[in-house]
Description:
The complex is a heterodimer of chains A (270) and B (340).
Chain A: H1 2-12, H2 19-26, E1 49-54, H3 60-71, E2 82-87, H4 94-108, H5 114-125, E3 128-132, H6 136-152, E4 156-162, H7 179-194, E5 200-206, E6 233-241, E7 244-250, E8 255-263, E9 266-269
Parallel strand pairs in A: 1-5, 1-6, 2-3, 2-4, 4-5
Antiparallel strand pairs in A: 6-7, 7-8, 8-9
Helix pairs in contact in A: 3-4, 4-5, 6-7
Chain B: H1 14-22, H2 28-33, H3 36-43, H4 47-61, E1 66-67, H5 68-77, E2 81-82, H6 87-92, E3 97-98, E4 102-107, H7 113-128, E5 131-136, H8 143-152, H9 157-166, E6 167-171, H10 175-186, E7 195-201, H11 203-207, H12 217-235, E8 239-252, H13 254-265, E9 274-280, H14 283-287, E10 292-298, E11 302-303, E12 309-317, E13 325-331, E14 334-337
Parallel strand pairs in B: 4-8, 4-10, 5-6, 5-7, 7-8
Antiparallel strand pairs in B: 2-3, 8-9, 10-12, 11-12, 12-13, 13-14
Helix pairs in contact in B: 3-4, 7-8, 10-12
Amino acid sequence: MRINLVNRMAASSFKVESGIQLIARLTKKLTNIKFYPHLFPSGLKPGEVIELIHNEDMPICLITDIICTALLPTNLGGAESGVLIFNCSGNFNFSKLVTSMRQKIKSYTKTLDEMEVDDLIAKQFNNLFVVDIHDATQFYTTIYNLENVLLEHTNITMVMFDNIAAFYWSEQGFKIMKIDTYLKKVLSKIQNVTKEHKVIVLYSKPHYFNSSKDAMESLEACYELPSLDGVNYRISVSYDRDSIYLANVKSYNMQQEKRFCINEEQVTWI
Amino acid sequence: MQKLKQVNHAALTDDILKKLSQSRIATILEFLQEDTEKLSIITKLSLSDILTIRSHIFDKYSAPLINGATLLKRIKTKKKFLQTGIESLDLVLNGGIPVGHITEFCGLAESGKTQLSFQIAINCVKETGGTILFIDTKGDFSAIRIQKVLEAEQLSHKEMAIIMHKIKVVHIWTMDEIIELLQKIKNKTLAFDNLCLLIVDSLPCLMLQYLGDDNKIGLALLNTFVNYCRFIANDMEIGIICINLQTRWVDQDISDLEEDEKDRSTSVIKEIAYVEKRNRCLGNYWRYVPAVVLLLEKSQPFESDGKHICSHITVKLNSERENKSCNLLLNAIGVTSCIE
């Protein structure tokens, strides 16, 4: 009789949730993050996935600028959120991140002296976490360990992978997995771990890393809402001309072209 | 992907590993992505034991989390560049060969890549007193060429001996061998006193045997090589120079051909344009690997001082659109900044 009652209750009105789901729900992230309007005019929703496609000469300044804006306090034009970087390519330059943050702070506040700027940088860096990844085993174990990391550091709002294709070839044996299939598999592993924590996932991938040779047009459409192994924003960056870069931004309901140039290693949107 | 038996956990006995293997769980990844309750049923271990194994795997294999404060400290204290000892080249490189990253020297055959790497090796030993590991894959490493450069600098025999002693040469013939060497350096089973620079001359020599290989084994090996290089460069705070080859060919300009098609209708005969095209070897994957790419281009040789045949080499930074470049003077007695 009692068992029947429990079964009926479970089947009708009760939802069973794990401890992780409970903690993630209790530390729920903001509903919409106003962040980097040049690329995301309507802001970002927790759990969304952003794909950044780039050539080999894409200025690292763009990724640095995005991370820097995510870390900066809101009164300085940032999102004041925690960021975790999966440094897979090894080419992310953290010194440039400090330089970029210093220049941004100075451009917003003229009154701070060097010491105060240093203190502010140190404070904002408290929201930054990095994992240096050197092989495929380390890549996957660190992804599965993300659950523990996100539980411990609830301020992390964005997880960034630079770049997601770094270990593709080392994982291929005599049988080669299609690039698109591989990408979906990796993304679904990441999302399985991060979905309860509602973090934004941003990953970069090289232009060639695509099963079809027709590039952007042939890629799957962007999703409106966060969904497993699908992306919500796709940004393709390429060199235009006269030191100007072109960012082609796609979401489920918009497509726009934005141009930027680099002045003293700082991104300036045109 | 590493096998589960490499985890070395007391609870993962041969019997348990066999049971897991029968359920197609043989690698660490397969273990981690499986539901913990299902693993408990398969292995007949308690849920707590399964979670302990998972935790052990995370401790042993996942990357340590670096917080912002540690990162800032690292940025302030870490060596960022290795000066090349050639002033104009250091200016182009914003300080020198980046430490912790892979740098590529690329150019046509005989563009001065090896000679430049010899000069940088000598200058680095003189500047830092550290060891240079020169990986020779072509089998043409010449100590005499280094000696000539040192003699031109009018060093004593003792000084020359010290510098030459610091440049360690390893001959490598296959990708497997170079990976084994890097693995030993990573695991510290092979150690060099104060290693500061690793030079691979040249990478395409090892990779060309995999050209056209449908199974892409070459790319798998290249990816593994890059992973080791990145670990060593970061962990030991050294610079890594990989020498790559540039190829060139003459091609018909396609746009002109299309124009020709249009012109035919107007009966105008137009000459087909031929253009020289150049390409960096090692394919698409490699293009994204180096943090810095230096393109070397050699001028026609000329007699500079009545004694030496020289060439100018233009060194161009390929990673940015800034088009930074410098001219160097190259001859048998070394590479120096070019006085305009």
